[in-house]
Amino acid sequence: MASSILSRMFRRKAKPKVEQLRDVETIKRRRLNAVIGIAVGLATLPLVALYLLLALSSFADRIVTGPDIIEAEYSTTNWKLLFQGKLEPAAGRLYDLRELIMIIVNTFIVALGVTVAVVLISVMAGYAFSRMKFRGRVGLMEFIILLHAFPGVALIIAVYAIYVWSLGAVPKDVLTEYRFLYTILARASLEIPMSIWLMKGFFDRIPWEVEWSAMVDGASRIRVWRQIVLPQIKPGIAAISIFAFLAGWEDLIYVHVFLYTGGIKTLATFLEEVIGNIETTYLPIAAAAGTLYLIPTIVFFVLTQKLLLEAMSGGVKA
Amino acid sequence: MRIPKPNPIWFFLSPALFLIIVFYVVPLFFSIYISFTPLQNWNLARYLDQISLENYERLFYMAMNDPDVTKVVKTTIVFVTITLIFNVLGGLILALSMFFMDESLSLPYRLIWILPRMTPIAVYSLIWYYFFLGDESGTLNSLLLRLGVIEKPLAWGNSPELLPESAWAIIILVNGLVGVSFGMVVFYSALRSLPREHVIAARVEGASAFQMTRYVLVPQLKWHIIYVTVWQLLSLITTYAHIFLLVQWGAIDKWWGSPWALYVFNTAFTTSDQGFAAAAAVILVVIGGILGILVLRLMGFKKLMQEPKGEL
Q1: Confidence band, pLDDT 50/70/90 cuts, at residue A105
Q2: Does the pLDDT of residue A100 top 60, yes or no?
Q3: Nearest CA in chain A to B144
Q4: Phi and psi based region of residue B51 (left: phi greater than 0; alpha: psi -120 to 50; beta: remaining)
Q5: ipTM score here?
Q6: What's chain A's average pLDDT?
Q7: B245: Cβ contacts below 8 Å, ≥ 6 apart
């Protein structure tokens, strides 16, 4: 990312000679562009450095902190130990590879579950708010926006109390599935108010005439929604999916409260445990665990840059 | 006679309504109810029928007299105030800088600044855990030792001679870097949608970047600044996820590093005093509700709702 910033900052200077016949105004602007670019770059550097040091430390024999990047020795030892389940070279295994894979799978289940729930529910409700007239439409939408501003996490005590109460009624053999389902729905409900509002905005932008003619020809509302409208809002669905996935992936509090207490680990609670168990000397192994957990987020960032930013500004503009 | 079709509105709305009722409406009333009971260890069957005002009396008494809870109250006030200023001003400065840059150049910067918000919270905590680690392998200690600023490593988050300011500085920095992107995104998209003529006119008149900011851009962002301030105030009062692990791992002092929301969470889930914790949470719920309604008014919600398109 840093090299692309540099190339973008100075790209204009490399243009052919003809372009140098510019008026004073643009030259001033170019200088401003470079000055501010460098200033923001300097302010951004420490932030980037923190992430890079984490990734570097995962390969190093110590936690690298800056100047000692050259002195440290690099190998894949930390990663090997992490996958073997040893948090110290001399210690015994705390877990095996299969368990670690299950932890990663669990994290994906939560993230994908949140994505599916958020997309499905907001695609349905967003359509209703955009296209249908019903009593209390404005009031209900207003209430949903209020929920978006309202701190859902402040209700977590009662949400957990309901969970404890409901666990008694769940048959033993589907207990694990129920724990996942509850975690996913509880986490998804934090995202749903904003997603419904965003989806309504996406539907509002689509012309109504095609749907209308299909309905005049006798197609049902639900069929029109599924076959004609949904294909037109694919970019909106993509944006909401990215957001929902990252929200499910980054979560700590909900997996800690609803899954960890039931003995189900995800990468977040795994990392929480690793730091609790590890001695300072072997922290680079924790760095490897952290880097592993960070990789999907970074991949999403690189692949969906523009969409991510647009969805974010769409979400906050609401 | 044709049989009337079932109303499809229920098909479209019921999943959303179900989640809203189960995870917002019921918990809201249940929270308030629990706050009047002496619930402990999640033993719902045993405690839920004993109603009293005791939790609120205890809460009020402790907030005034208990040495640890008074630390939490002070921390909350300092943390919310300074982080709020940091977030709004920082967001404004970032947005303005991005605005004066070419869009292709500002894109990677904007991405990097929203990275802390999107980073898995446990990884973000780990990064700061390393940074403020109390021995010589911590990033901050290691750098300062090399520069000769300090002679021996310092436990930044919990050494008694540095408290409480050091713990406050850490939680403000950790949360500030997450929150700053919200203001940045709101202000940036507001700046981009200002009429270009204003900017061009100011340029033609020879206004410097500073003059343009002071006299043209910032005055037009007035409502956005108020909106971001209220929104951030709301989320800062109720935020705790990014500090939770730092306290859990012992990187910062348990009391000087806990704002009210984290205190509520730990009282409910680490110790086991849920009735009392619910009373402490109800205060957050009330503040959250009031500020939420304020946000809604600021957004000019009614104007945003257009008539539905799709009625035959």
Answers
A1: very high
A2: yes
A3: A65
A4: beta
A5: 0.88
A6: 84
A7: A252, A272, A275, B121, B122, B125, B126, B129
Residues in a beta bridge with A60: A74
A19 confidence band (pLDDT: 50, 70, 90): very low
Measured between alpha carbons, how far apart are the two ends of chain B, in Å?
A: 20
Q: B69 vs chain A: nearest CA distance in angstroms?
A: 18
Range with lowest mean pLDDT among A45-59, B52-66, B145-159: B145-159
The model's pTM:
0.88
> Which positions in chain A touch B188 (Cβ < 8 Å)?
313
Nearest to A189 among B23, B108, B234 (CB): B23
Q: B300 or A278, which is more confident?
A: A278
Q: Rounded mean pLDDT of B26-43?
A: 90
Contacts A229 to B, Cβ<8 Å = none
Domains of chain A: 2-84 (no CATH), 97-317 (1.10.3720.10)
Q: What is the pLDDT of residues B236-280, one digit of tens each?
A: 988 899 999 999 888 898 899 899 999 999 999 988 889 999 999
The answer, yes or no, to whether residue A24 has pLDDT greater than 50, is no
- In A, minimum Cα distance to B14 occurs at A125
Q: Does B276 touch chain A (CB under 8 A)?
A: no
Residues of B in contact with A275 (CB under 8 A): 126, 129, 245, 249
The percent of residues in chain B predicted with pLDDT above 70, rounded, is 94
- DSSP annotation of A74 reads B
Those residues with Cβ within 8 angstroms of residue B198's Cβ, 6 or more apart along the chain or in another chain:
B216, B220
Q: Does B1 touch chain A (CB under 8 A)?
A: no
Residue of chain A whose alpha carbon sits nearest to that of B33: A158
For B31, residues 6+ apart whose C-beta sits below 8 A from its C-beta are A154, A155, A157, A158, B278, B281, B282, B285
Q: Provide DSSP, B77-108.
A: HHHHHHHHHHHHHHHHHHHHHHHHS-HHHHHH
Domain B54-300, CATH 1.10.3720.10 — does that match? yes
- Per-residue pLDDT, averaged over B56-64, amounts to 89
Q: Do B265 and A253 touch (CB under 8 A)?
A: yes
- Which member of B16, B22, B105 has the closest CB to residue A121? B16
End-to-end alpha carbon distance in chain A: 30
Half-sphere exposure of A309 (CA within 13 A, CB side): 18
Q: How many CB atoms lie within 10 A of CB B116?
A: 22
pLDDT of residue B32 exceeding 70: yes
The closest alpha carbon to B81, from B224, B242, B294, B229, belongs to B229
Average pLDDT value for residue range B290-306: 73
- The answer, yes or no, to whether residue A8 has pLDDT greater than 60, is no
Inform me whether the C-beta atom of residue B27 falls under 8 Å from chain A C-beta atoms. yes
Identify whether B6 is preceded by a cis peptide bond (ω within 30 of 0): no
Which chain B residues touch A297 with a CB distance below 8 Å?
118-120
Separate counts of helices (H) and strands (E) for chain B: 17, 0
Q: How far, in Å, CA of A77 to CA of A58, rounded?
A: 9
Residue numbers in B near A293 (CB within 8 A)? 120, 122-123
Residues of B with CB below 8 A from A63's CB? 130, 133, 137-139
Q: Give pLDDT, residue A22.
A: 44
What is residue A2's predicted lDDT score, i.e. its pLDDT? 52
CB contact under 8 A, B100 and A36: yes
